């Protein structure tokens, strides 16, 4: 698949078929994330794949509440990938502090999108979820308290094959050459 075609097919999926995702497909998505670039090659991530149905439901329930219900779709996803920050190299930590840039978050974002793009190639859908209750998730998954969960990604077979029209700013409205305009 040509890259722009792949990117045009990537969308946030919030309705999934009740069909488990083959671990081979998930592992190819994780391989794509493993190959993502990172500041000073720090690879500041750990991925936890939750595909056990009972545990997955418990994880999903930590993404919404009776007041905030917009993430209820997570219950339908057959698997959820949790991305935990790992700070393995000192140089990007120091550089990030000096420049006030969270390099590890940029790196996690790149790896997350690699997962989502490979998922499209595998015929899967994904949705990145940033709203969740971190402390209960850490307890559920045995994540050390000093670690941070940065992002969750639901993954599964989309219930619909249609690709929604993307509502994006037209290209001339998002760039300029040589100076800010």
UniProtKB/TrEMBL annotation:
Short name of one Pfam family: Nitroreductase
Gene Ontology terms for molecular function: oxidoreductase activity
First and last residue of the signal peptide: none
Tree of life domain: Bacteria
Keyword line: Oxidoreductase
Residue ranges of domain Nitroreductase in the record: 8-157
InterPro entries: Nitroreductase (IPR029479), Nitroreductase-like (IPR000415)
The family this protein is said to belong to: Belongs to the nitroreductase family.
Annotated protein name in UniProt: NAD(P)H nitroreductase
Organism (species): Thermanaerosceptrum fracticalcis
């Amino acid at each position: 698949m040509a890259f722009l075609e792949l990117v045009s097919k990537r969308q946030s999926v919030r309705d999934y078929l009740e069909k488990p995702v083959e671990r081979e497909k998930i592992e190819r998505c994780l391989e794509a994330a493993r190959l993502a670039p990172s500041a000073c090659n720090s690879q500041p991530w750990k991925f936890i794949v939750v595909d056990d149905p009972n545990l997955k439901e418990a994880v999903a329930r930590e993404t919404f509440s009776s007041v905030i219900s917009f993430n209820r779709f997570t219950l339908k996803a057959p698997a959820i990938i949790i991305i935990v920050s790992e700070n393995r190299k000192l140089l990007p930590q120091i550089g990030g502090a000096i420049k006030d840039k969270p390099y590890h978050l940029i790196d996690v974002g790149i790896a997350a999108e690699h997962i989502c793009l490979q998922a499209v190639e595998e015929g899967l859908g994904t949705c990145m979820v940033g709203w969740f209750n971190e402390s209960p998730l850490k307890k559920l998954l045995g994540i050390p308290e000093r670690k941070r969960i940065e992002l969750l990604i639901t993954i599964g077979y989309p219930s619909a094959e249609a690709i929604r029209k993307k509502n994006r700013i037209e290209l001339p409205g998002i760039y300029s050459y040589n100076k800010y305009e």
